[in-house]
Amino acid sequence: MNSCKSVEVYAIVPASGFSRRMGRQKLLLPWQNKPLLEHVLQTANNSSLKGVFTIIPNDEERKRIALQLNSIVIHNTQPERGIGYSLALGIKQVPKTADAVVILLGDQPELRLEDIQGVLARFTKQYTDTNTHSKIIVQTQYSDGKIGHPILFSKPFFPELSSLDGDQGGNQIIRNNFQYVTLVNSLHRYPQDIDTAKEYENLLNRR
Question: What is the model's pTM?
Answer without folding.
Answer: 0.92
